[in-house]
Amino acid sequence: MKIVSLAKSFEGAQGVYKHSAESTNCDMTFAVFTPPQAEKIPVPVLWYLSGLTCSHANVMDKGEYRRLAAKLGVAVICPDTSPRGDHVPDEADNWQFGAGAGFYLDATQAPFDEHYQMYSYITSELPKVVKKNFNFDMGRQSIMGHSMGGHGALIIALKNPETYLSCSAFAPIVSPSTADWSKNAFVKYLGADESNWTEYDAVQLIANGSRFGSFLVDQGGADDFLEDGLRPWLLRDECERAGIPLELRMQDGYDHSYNFISTFMDDHIRWHHSFLGD
Amino acid sequence: MKIVSLAKSFEGAQGVYKHSAESTNCDMTFAVFTPPQAEKIPVPVLWYLSGLTCSHANVMDKGEYRRLAAKLGVAVICPDTSPRGDHVPDEADNWQFGAGAGFYLDATQAPFDEHYQMYSYITSELPKVVKKNFNFDMGRQSIMGHSMGGHGALIIALKNPETYLSCSAFAPIVSPSTADWSKNAFVKYLGADESNWTEYDAVQLIANGSRFGSFLVDQGGADDFLEDGLRPWLLRDECERAGIPLELRMQDGYDHSYNFISTFMDDHIRWHHSFLGD
Question: Which of residues 224-253 of B touch A (CB under 8 A)?
Fold first, then answer.
């Protein structure tokens, strides 16, 4: 693991790191905020998964998570959203597929399966790299995300309820296998047989029996993607059927941007901290 | 004035606006955060002047000023750092002069004097545009800035002590007329006669009799520009001689970036709010 950049911030340190990843077969970059408490004790970990077109940098620049994470003593890890590199297959003019659009799944279709293994990368490989290099308590992990990253957080929590103590999302894609803007990516990554898509769809995972403690979801009321891509009511209905507590907060007037995310970031960090402990 | 973008943020609104400016003879872009209180009452105004290479956008994205400004009911205005446009003279490969490097002065030398009138723009033209278009109390203005913008805040406060109720700076260039990295710009904007430079140099303004109520200055101890360009001790010594209260806080380990600025932004906003009132 190489340090790309490291700066003192809120008495902790905001770092950017790069490592050669086996699962995605390329160099991967990720950001870590280490709170000041980590100098003395192992601190809990909060993952933030970003949305389409983003890298680790967008939320690092605009997410406004450091002030409260430093105060409460929570590490925040912000991975990239896909494999990247000249040798990684991509569609440069398609923002909903390829680079910046890994959808946190393990692709099964050639040639994408050689690199697009973001589910394994986020849930298995990167945690090992973090454990080896930081004074973090990997027994206390929570996860959140935005849009495609909200989808990632939800499915990863549902598939690993013993690993993540809490899960929240900002404007998540709750059912990417049935949304027009994400179905095309699922076909290319997972093949035409839609029965293989349900493993990476929060609504369908719940319908098929997956469970998680509880979810916090914020959704902007002025989000342009609300009706077609996001549709949080599908998650609400499925959680109701399954008896999973979901706090779905419709935030009047907010859009899909980091203006929305940063406004409610404190609420999410406090909520996760209530599960993670000091 | 045209709205470039507008998004709800922290119950207020983060906007970006564009207007045709007479003083700089070009279109100018600026950012305004309007706190929610402005819907009911005229709110006080806090100016943030940015540093070399920045536009209005850097601090808007990374400054983390909205949460507390919304809570306290303070509008935050972030202007650009220079005139811009195909017809504006520039040196594209020089980050210390031209576009992004207006130094908040009124140039006297051709061809720069036709556009580089940032002092007049910030102190006279833009406040009129703001007064006309927003529900702000222009009788209560304060000013802060970073690096070149810290220089701008200091000289503008010193030259207009009746207009600005308080002034603070992050890592300001306290004496640009004597620093190697800024002298070259002063020659081009103001001519070779150095006696004309003192009007735009905080240390020399104070030495020549300008006064202001008090200053708050934060300076990172790991700032690469500390020794050559910034030299806050020059301001400290001159303020001591003049009897101007200066709280100069050396912040161990912090660099020149927005990681430093955002860490101490809350302190600065609270300090200005104590002068501006509710």
Answer: 253
ipTM: 0.95
Active site residue B274: no
Which of A61, A64, A224, A257 to mutate against chain B (most B CBs within 10 Å)?
A64
Asked whether the predicted pLDDT for residue A189 surpasses 90, the reply is yes
Q: How many angstroms separate the CA of residue A56 from the nearest CA in chain B?
A: 15
The CATH number linked to B31 is 3.40.50.1820
> Which range marks the domain in which residue B267 is found?
2-276
* Residue B36 distance to chain A (closest CA, Å): 13
**Whether this model's pTM surpasses 0.95:** yes
Interchain proximity A61–B62, CB inside 8 Å: yes
Strand arrangement, sheet containing A75-79: A2-9, A12-21, A26-34, A75-79, A43-49, A136-146, A164-170, A215-220, A246-251
Q: How many domains does chain A have?
A: 1
Helix (H, G, I), strand (E, B) or coil at A276: helix
